[in-house]
Hints:
By secondary structure, the chain is an alpha/beta fold.
Amino acid sequence: MDSPLASRRASLDVLVACLDKRQPLDDALARHSGLAAFEPRDRAFVRLLLATTLRRLGEIDTVLAGLIERPLDASNSIGRQVLRLGAAQLLFLGTPAHAAVDTSVRLMVDAGLAHLKGLANAVLRRVSREGAALLEVRDRAGLNVPAWLWESWLSAYGEQTTRALAAAHLAEAPLDLMPRADAAQWAQRLGGELLPTGTIRRPAGGAVSDLPGYIDGTWWVQDAAASLPARLLGDVAGKQVADLCAAPGGKTLQLAAAGARVTAVDISARRMQRLRENLARAGLAADLAADLVTADAAKWQPGRSFEAILLDAPCSGTGTLRRHPDIAWLKDEQDIRRLTATQDRLLEHAVELLKPGGKLVYAVCSLQPEEGPVRIEALLARDNRLRRLPVQSAEVPGLEAAVTAAGDVRTLPSMWAERGGMDGFYIARVIRQD
Protein backbone atom coordinates (compact mmCIF):
# COMPACT_ATOMS: atom_id res chain seq x y z
CA MET A 1 0.00 0.00 0.00
CA ASP A 2 1.44 3.42 -0.96
CA SER A 3 2.26 5.89 1.80
CA PRO A 4 -0.64 8.37 1.26
CA LEU A 5 -3.21 5.56 1.25
CA ALA A 6 -1.55 3.73 4.17
CA SER A 7 -1.64 6.81 6.39
CA ARG A 8 -5.30 7.40 5.58
CA ARG A 9 -6.12 3.73 6.12
CA ALA A 10 -4.52 3.93 9.57
CA SER A 11 -6.48 7.12 10.26
CA LEU A 12 -9.69 5.33 9.28
CA ASP A 13 -8.91 2.37 11.54
CA VAL A 14 -8.34 4.66 14.51
CA LEU A 15 -11.37 6.87 13.81
CA VAL A 16 -13.63 3.80 13.61
CA ALA A 17 -12.19 2.52 16.89
CA CYS A 18 -12.77 5.89 18.49
CA LEU A 19 -16.19 6.99 17.23
CA ASP A 20 -17.85 3.64 16.45
CA LYS A 21 -16.25 1.46 19.18
CA ARG A 22 -15.97 4.23 21.80
CA GLN A 23 -12.25 3.85 22.44
CA PRO A 24 -10.35 6.94 23.66
CA LEU A 25 -8.22 8.34 20.85
CA ASP A 26 -4.90 7.83 22.65
CA ASP A 27 -5.78 4.19 23.35
CA ALA A 28 -6.84 3.58 19.76
CA LEU A 29 -3.60 5.09 18.48
CA ALA A 30 -1.52 3.01 20.90
CA ARG A 31 -3.29 -0.20 19.89
CA HIS A 32 -2.86 0.28 16.16
CA SER A 33 -0.28 -2.31 15.14
CA GLY A 34 0.95 -0.57 12.00
CA LEU A 35 1.69 2.97 13.19
CA ALA A 36 5.06 2.15 14.73
CA ALA A 37 6.41 1.17 11.30
CA PHE A 38 5.41 4.47 9.68
CA GLU A 39 7.90 7.20 8.87
CA PRO A 40 7.73 10.07 11.39
CA ARG A 41 6.15 12.32 8.74
CA ASP A 42 3.36 9.81 8.09
CA ARG A 43 2.71 9.28 11.82
CA ALA A 44 2.48 13.04 12.24
CA PHE A 45 -0.02 13.25 9.37
CA VAL A 46 -2.20 10.54 10.95
CA ARG A 47 -2.33 12.43 14.23
CA LEU A 48 -3.01 15.74 12.51
CA LEU A 49 -5.81 14.29 10.37
CA LEU A 50 -7.46 12.59 13.34
CA ALA A 51 -7.17 15.60 15.63
CA THR A 52 -8.55 17.90 12.95
CA THR A 53 -11.45 15.58 12.17
CA LEU A 54 -12.43 15.33 15.83
CA ARG A 55 -11.94 19.03 16.62
CA ARG A 56 -14.03 20.03 13.59
CA LEU A 57 -16.48 17.14 13.62
CA GLY A 58 -19.55 19.33 14.02
CA GLU A 59 -18.61 21.52 11.06
CA ILE A 60 -17.72 18.46 8.97
CA ASP A 61 -21.04 16.77 9.72
CA THR A 62 -22.92 19.99 8.97
CA VAL A 63 -21.38 20.17 5.51
CA LEU A 64 -21.91 16.47 4.78
CA ALA A 65 -25.53 16.62 5.94
CA GLY A 66 -26.14 19.42 3.46
CA LEU A 67 -24.76 17.36 0.59
CA ILE A 68 -26.05 13.83 1.28
CA GLU A 69 -29.76 13.31 0.66
CA ARG A 70 -30.03 10.13 2.72
CA PRO A 71 -27.75 9.58 5.74
CA LEU A 72 -25.68 6.39 5.74
CA ASP A 73 -27.18 3.65 7.90
CA ALA A 74 -25.38 1.64 10.58
CA SER A 75 -24.24 -1.03 8.13
CA ASN A 76 -22.28 1.66 6.26
CA SER A 77 -20.84 3.38 9.34
CA ILE A 78 -17.26 2.94 8.12
CA GLY A 79 -18.26 4.86 5.01
CA ARG A 80 -19.34 7.76 7.21
CA GLN A 81 -15.86 7.87 8.72
CA VAL A 82 -14.26 7.81 5.26
CA LEU A 83 -16.33 10.83 4.25
CA ARG A 84 -15.44 12.64 7.47
CA LEU A 85 -11.71 12.13 6.90
CA GLY A 86 -12.02 13.27 3.29
CA ALA A 87 -13.98 16.37 4.27
CA ALA A 88 -11.46 17.26 6.99
CA GLN A 89 -8.68 17.25 4.42
CA LEU A 90 -10.63 19.39 1.97
CA LEU A 91 -12.08 21.90 4.43
CA PHE A 92 -9.28 22.36 6.96
CA LEU A 93 -5.98 20.79 5.88
CA GLY A 94 -5.68 22.21 2.38
CA THR A 95 -5.22 18.80 0.79
CA PRO A 96 -5.54 19.01 -3.02
CA ALA A 97 -9.00 17.88 -4.08
CA HIS A 98 -7.71 15.13 -6.39
CA ALA A 99 -5.64 13.59 -3.57
CA ALA A 100 -8.38 13.74 -0.91
CA VAL A 101 -11.08 12.44 -3.26
CA ASP A 102 -8.97 9.69 -4.85
CA THR A 103 -7.69 8.26 -1.56
CA SER A 104 -11.20 8.40 -0.04
CA VAL A 105 -12.68 6.46 -2.97
CA ARG A 106 -9.88 3.90 -2.66
CA LEU A 107 -10.53 3.63 1.08
CA MET A 108 -14.20 2.87 0.41
CA VAL A 109 -13.23 0.00 -1.87
CA ASP A 110 -10.53 -1.22 0.54
CA ALA A 111 -13.10 -1.24 3.37
CA GLY A 112 -15.47 -3.48 1.36
CA LEU A 113 -17.80 -0.62 0.48
CA ALA A 114 -17.30 -0.47 -3.27
CA HIS A 115 -21.00 0.35 -3.66
CA LEU A 116 -20.26 3.72 -2.00
CA LYS A 117 -17.32 4.78 -4.14
CA GLY A 118 -19.56 6.79 -6.47
CA LEU A 119 -21.13 8.53 -3.49
CA ALA A 120 -17.71 9.34 -2.03
CA ASN A 121 -16.49 10.75 -5.32
CA ALA A 122 -19.57 12.93 -5.87
CA VAL A 123 -19.99 14.16 -2.28
CA LEU A 124 -16.34 15.02 -1.69
CA ARG A 125 -16.07 16.86 -4.98
CA ARG A 126 -19.02 18.95 -3.85
CA VAL A 127 -17.35 19.46 -0.46
CA SER A 128 -14.34 20.85 -2.30
CA ARG A 129 -16.50 23.25 -4.32
CA GLU A 130 -19.30 24.16 -1.89
CA GLY A 131 -18.20 23.24 1.64
CA ALA A 132 -16.68 26.56 2.66
CA ALA A 133 -19.77 28.45 1.47
CA LEU A 134 -22.07 26.12 3.44
CA LEU A 135 -20.17 26.96 6.63
CA GLU A 136 -20.08 30.70 5.90
CA VAL A 137 -23.84 31.00 6.46
CA ARG A 138 -23.76 29.18 9.81
CA ASP A 139 -22.96 30.38 13.32
CA ARG A 140 -19.94 28.11 13.63
CA ALA A 141 -19.11 28.81 17.28
CA GLY A 142 -21.14 25.96 18.72
CA LEU A 143 -21.05 23.46 15.86
CA ASN A 144 -18.06 21.54 17.25
CA VAL A 145 -19.47 21.23 20.77
CA PRO A 146 -22.22 18.68 21.53
CA ALA A 147 -25.48 20.38 22.54
CA TRP A 148 -25.45 19.10 26.14
CA LEU A 149 -21.92 20.42 26.68
CA TRP A 150 -22.67 23.78 25.08
CA GLU A 151 -25.75 24.25 27.26
CA SER A 152 -23.85 23.36 30.43
CA TRP A 153 -21.14 25.93 29.63
CA LEU A 154 -23.72 28.58 28.80
CA SER A 155 -25.32 28.02 32.19
CA ALA A 156 -22.01 28.07 34.07
CA TYR A 157 -20.02 30.74 32.22
CA GLY A 158 -22.33 32.77 29.97
CA GLU A 159 -22.31 33.12 26.20
CA GLN A 160 -19.15 35.18 25.75
CA THR A 161 -16.95 32.78 27.72
CA THR A 162 -18.63 29.73 26.17
CA ARG A 163 -17.80 31.02 22.69
CA ALA A 164 -14.22 31.69 23.81
CA LEU A 165 -13.96 28.13 25.16
CA ALA A 166 -15.24 26.66 21.91
CA ALA A 167 -12.72 28.72 19.94
CA ALA A 168 -9.82 27.78 22.23
CA HIS A 169 -10.52 24.08 21.80
CA LEU A 170 -9.99 24.32 18.03
CA ALA A 171 -6.29 25.15 18.45
CA GLU A 172 -3.55 22.62 19.04
CA ALA A 173 -2.12 22.94 22.54
CA PRO A 174 1.46 24.19 22.88
CA LEU A 175 4.08 22.08 24.63
CA ASP A 176 4.60 22.91 28.31
CA LEU A 177 7.63 21.58 30.19
CA MET A 178 8.25 21.69 33.94
CA PRO A 179 11.97 21.89 34.83
CA ARG A 180 13.38 20.43 38.02
CA ALA A 181 15.51 23.54 38.54
CA ASP A 182 17.15 26.47 36.70
CA ALA A 183 13.93 27.34 34.88
CA ALA A 184 15.27 30.51 33.21
CA GLN A 185 18.36 28.72 31.95
CA TRP A 186 16.33 25.84 30.54
CA ALA A 187 13.83 28.20 28.94
CA GLN A 188 16.68 29.82 27.03
CA ARG A 189 18.23 26.48 26.07
CA LEU A 190 14.90 25.05 24.91
CA GLY A 191 13.94 28.20 23.02
CA GLY A 192 10.77 28.53 25.06
CA GLU A 193 8.91 31.14 27.09
CA LEU A 194 9.17 30.99 30.87
CA LEU A 195 5.60 31.32 32.14
CA PRO A 196 4.69 32.86 35.52
CA THR A 197 3.87 29.35 36.79
CA GLY A 198 7.51 28.29 36.30
CA THR A 199 6.57 26.23 33.25
CA ILE A 200 8.46 26.52 29.97
CA ARG A 201 6.25 26.84 26.88
CA ARG A 202 7.27 25.84 23.37
CA PRO A 203 5.21 25.59 20.18
CA ALA A 204 3.66 22.20 19.50
CA GLY A 205 5.32 19.84 17.05
CA GLY A 206 8.47 17.76 16.82
CA ALA A 207 9.59 14.82 18.92
CA VAL A 208 9.72 15.60 22.64
CA SER A 209 12.44 12.99 23.11
CA ASP A 210 14.74 14.93 20.77
CA LEU A 211 14.77 18.05 22.96
CA PRO A 212 17.79 18.88 25.15
CA GLY A 213 17.42 17.57 28.68
CA TYR A 214 14.90 14.82 27.91
CA ILE A 215 17.29 11.89 28.39
CA ASP A 216 18.70 13.44 31.56
CA GLY A 217 15.22 14.00 32.99
CA THR A 218 15.80 17.67 33.72
CA TRP A 219 12.16 18.45 32.83
CA TRP A 220 8.88 16.69 32.18
CA VAL A 221 5.82 17.48 30.10
CA GLN A 222 3.10 19.20 32.15
CA ASP A 223 0.52 21.81 31.19
CA ALA A 224 0.84 25.12 33.03
CA ALA A 225 -2.57 24.68 34.69
CA ALA A 226 -1.74 21.12 35.73
CA SER A 227 1.25 22.43 37.67
CA LEU A 228 -0.93 24.49 40.02
CA PRO A 229 -2.45 21.82 42.34
CA ALA A 230 0.92 20.70 43.72
CA ARG A 231 1.99 24.34 44.19
CA LEU A 232 -1.06 24.98 46.34
CA LEU A 233 0.07 22.47 48.96
CA GLY A 234 2.76 25.02 49.85
CA ASP A 235 6.14 24.02 51.26
CA VAL A 236 6.15 20.20 51.27
CA ALA A 237 9.85 19.61 51.95
CA GLY A 238 10.21 16.68 54.35
CA LYS A 239 6.44 16.17 54.66
CA GLN A 240 4.53 12.94 54.16
CA VAL A 241 2.36 13.62 51.09
CA ALA A 242 -0.07 11.27 49.35
CA ASP A 243 -0.66 11.78 45.64
CA LEU A 244 -3.92 9.98 44.92
CA CYS A 245 -4.80 8.97 41.35
CA ALA A 246 -1.20 9.89 40.60
CA ALA A 247 -0.39 8.55 37.13
CA PRO A 248 1.07 9.52 34.72
CA GLY A 249 2.93 11.39 37.43
CA GLY A 250 3.61 15.04 36.67
CA LYS A 251 2.38 16.08 40.10
CA THR A 252 4.31 13.28 41.81
CA LEU A 253 7.44 14.52 40.05
CA GLN A 254 6.73 18.06 41.24
CA LEU A 255 6.25 16.97 44.84
CA ALA A 256 9.32 14.73 44.87
CA ALA A 257 11.45 17.48 43.31
CA ALA A 258 10.22 19.83 46.08
CA GLY A 259 11.50 17.41 48.72
CA ALA A 260 8.25 15.77 49.77
CA ARG A 261 8.16 12.19 50.99
CA VAL A 262 5.62 11.06 48.42
CA THR A 263 3.34 8.07 48.35
CA ALA A 264 1.85 7.83 44.87
CA VAL A 265 -1.31 5.76 44.43
CA ASP A 266 -3.06 4.76 41.22
CA ILE A 267 -5.45 1.96 40.31
CA SER A 268 -3.80 1.18 36.97
CA ALA A 269 -0.68 -0.99 36.95
CA ARG A 270 0.06 0.10 33.38
CA ARG A 271 -0.09 3.79 34.25
CA MET A 272 1.89 3.20 37.42
CA GLN A 273 4.67 1.58 35.38
CA ARG A 274 4.75 4.72 33.25
CA LEU A 275 5.05 6.80 36.42
CA ARG A 276 7.90 4.62 37.60
CA GLU A 277 9.70 5.15 34.29
CA ASN A 278 9.14 8.91 34.44
CA LEU A 279 10.57 9.08 37.95
CA ALA A 280 13.60 7.08 36.90
CA ARG A 281 14.22 9.30 33.86
CA ALA A 282 13.98 12.40 36.05
CA GLY A 283 16.41 10.93 38.56
CA LEU A 284 13.82 11.07 41.31
CA ALA A 285 13.25 7.38 41.99
CA ALA A 286 15.82 7.35 44.79
CA ASP A 287 14.21 10.47 46.31
CA LEU A 288 10.83 8.84 46.65
CA ALA A 289 10.45 7.82 50.30
CA ALA A 290 7.70 5.24 49.74
CA ASP A 291 6.96 2.61 47.18
CA LEU A 292 4.55 3.39 44.41
CA VAL A 293 1.22 1.80 45.25
CA THR A 294 -1.13 0.21 42.76
CA ALA A 295 -4.52 0.35 44.46
CA ASP A 296 -7.99 1.88 44.36
CA ALA A 297 -7.40 5.23 46.08
CA ALA A 298 -10.99 5.21 47.39
CA LYS A 299 -10.33 1.98 49.33
CA TRP A 300 -6.59 2.10 50.02
CA GLN A 301 -5.66 1.53 53.67
CA PRO A 302 -2.02 2.52 54.28
CA GLY A 303 -2.21 2.25 58.06
CA ARG A 304 -1.03 5.82 58.56
CA SER A 305 -2.13 9.38 57.84
CA PHE A 306 -0.58 12.22 55.83
CA GLU A 307 0.28 15.85 56.39
CA ALA A 308 -0.88 16.74 52.89
CA ILE A 309 -2.89 15.02 50.17
CA LEU A 310 -3.24 15.86 46.50
CA LEU A 311 -6.29 14.34 44.82
CA ASP A 312 -6.38 14.83 41.05
CA ALA A 313 -9.61 12.91 40.64
CA PRO A 314 -10.86 10.99 37.60
CA CYS A 315 -13.12 13.31 35.65
CA SER A 316 -14.68 13.97 32.26
CA GLY A 317 -11.61 15.84 31.06
CA THR A 318 -13.64 18.53 29.32
CA GLY A 319 -10.94 21.06 30.20
CA THR A 320 -8.47 19.21 27.97
CA LEU A 321 -10.32 19.14 24.64
CA ARG A 322 -7.40 20.89 22.96
CA ARG A 323 -5.33 17.77 23.66
CA HIS A 324 -8.11 15.19 23.64
CA PRO A 325 -10.78 16.31 21.15
CA ASP A 326 -12.41 12.87 21.23
CA ILE A 327 -13.71 13.55 24.76
CA ALA A 328 -16.41 15.87 23.43
CA TRP A 329 -17.92 13.01 21.42
CA LEU A 330 -17.29 10.11 23.82
CA LYS A 331 -18.62 11.59 27.08
CA ASP A 332 -22.19 12.52 28.00
CA GLU A 333 -24.26 13.61 30.98
CA GLN A 334 -24.54 10.05 32.31
CA ASP A 335 -20.74 9.84 32.44
CA ILE A 336 -20.68 13.03 34.50
CA ARG A 337 -23.13 11.57 37.01
CA ARG A 338 -21.08 8.39 37.38
CA LEU A 339 -17.88 10.36 37.80
CA THR A 340 -19.29 12.63 40.52
CA ALA A 341 -20.14 9.59 42.62
CA THR A 342 -16.53 8.40 42.28
CA GLN A 343 -15.21 11.86 43.13
CA ASP A 344 -17.30 11.94 46.33
CA ARG A 345 -15.95 8.55 47.42
CA LEU A 346 -12.38 9.64 46.78
CA LEU A 347 -12.83 12.92 48.64
CA GLU A 348 -14.37 11.28 51.69
CA HIS A 349 -11.62 8.68 51.88
CA ALA A 350 -8.91 11.31 51.37
CA VAL A 351 -10.23 13.24 54.38
CA GLU A 352 -9.91 10.11 56.53
CA LEU A 353 -6.27 9.73 55.42
CA LEU A 354 -5.48 13.33 56.37
CA LYS A 355 -3.89 14.28 59.70
CA PRO A 356 -5.58 16.98 61.77
CA GLY A 357 -4.21 20.26 60.52
CA GLY A 358 -3.37 18.69 57.18
CA LYS A 359 -4.18 20.17 53.77
CA LEU A 360 -6.14 18.51 50.99
CA VAL A 361 -5.99 19.87 47.44
CA TYR A 362 -8.71 18.59 45.12
CA ALA A 363 -8.34 19.05 41.37
CA VAL A 364 -10.17 18.02 38.19
CA CYS A 365 -9.32 18.90 34.59
CA SER A 366 -13.01 19.45 33.92
CA LEU A 367 -15.07 22.51 33.05
CA GLN A 368 -18.23 20.99 34.51
CA PRO A 369 -19.36 22.62 37.79
CA GLU A 370 -20.80 19.30 38.94
CA GLU A 371 -17.28 17.87 39.09
CA GLY A 372 -15.75 20.95 40.70
CA PRO A 373 -17.30 23.45 43.11
CA VAL A 374 -20.46 21.39 43.58
CA ARG A 375 -18.37 18.51 44.92
CA ILE A 376 -16.43 20.70 47.34
CA GLU A 377 -19.51 22.51 48.64
CA ALA A 378 -21.18 19.14 49.25
CA LEU A 379 -18.09 17.86 51.08
CA LEU A 380 -17.90 20.93 53.32
CA ALA A 381 -21.63 20.62 54.10
CA ARG A 382 -21.22 16.96 55.09
CA ASP A 383 -18.04 17.22 57.17
CA ASN A 384 -17.72 19.94 59.81
CA ARG A 385 -14.09 18.99 60.45
CA LEU A 386 -13.17 20.75 57.23
CA ARG A 387 -12.91 24.36 56.18
CA ARG A 388 -11.93 25.89 52.87
CA LEU A 389 -8.43 27.37 52.75
CA PRO A 390 -8.79 30.15 50.16
CA VAL A 391 -6.14 30.54 47.51
CA GLN A 392 -4.45 33.93 47.40
CA SER A 393 -3.73 35.64 44.09
CA ALA A 394 0.00 35.66 44.84
CA GLU A 395 -0.01 31.86 44.91
CA VAL A 396 -0.99 31.70 41.22
CA PRO A 397 1.18 34.39 39.59
CA GLY A 398 -0.12 35.59 36.26
CA LEU A 399 -3.45 33.88 36.86
CA GLU A 400 -5.06 36.20 39.38
CA ALA A 401 -8.25 36.16 37.30
CA ALA A 402 -8.50 32.41 37.87
CA VAL A 403 -9.12 32.85 41.63
CA THR A 404 -12.86 32.61 42.27
CA ALA A 405 -14.90 34.60 44.78
CA ALA A 406 -14.92 31.53 47.04
CA GLY A 407 -11.13 31.31 46.96
CA ASP A 408 -10.85 28.33 44.63
CA VAL A 409 -9.04 28.28 41.27
CA ARG A 410 -10.81 27.95 37.91
CA THR A 411 -8.55 28.03 34.86
CA LEU A 412 -10.11 28.11 31.41
CA PRO A 413 -8.65 27.12 28.02
CA SER A 414 -9.43 30.66 26.84
CA MET A 415 -7.11 32.19 29.47
CA TRP A 416 -3.66 33.29 28.24
CA ALA A 417 -5.09 33.13 24.72
CA GLU A 418 -2.19 35.24 23.41
CA ARG A 419 0.19 32.59 24.76
CA GLY A 420 -1.73 29.59 23.44
CA GLY A 421 -4.20 29.00 26.28
CA MET A 422 -4.09 26.33 28.97
CA ASP A 423 -6.01 23.34 30.23
CA GLY A 424 -9.24 23.96 32.12
CA PHE A 425 -8.86 23.00 35.80
CA TYR A 426 -10.87 23.41 38.97
CA ILE A 427 -8.76 23.38 42.15
CA ALA A 428 -9.89 23.73 45.77
CA ARG A 429 -7.96 23.54 49.02
CA VAL A 430 -9.34 22.53 52.41
CA ILE A 431 -7.83 21.97 55.84
CA ARG A 432 -8.87 19.42 58.45
CA GLN A 433 -9.37 21.18 61.81
CA ASP A 434 -10.04 18.47 64.41
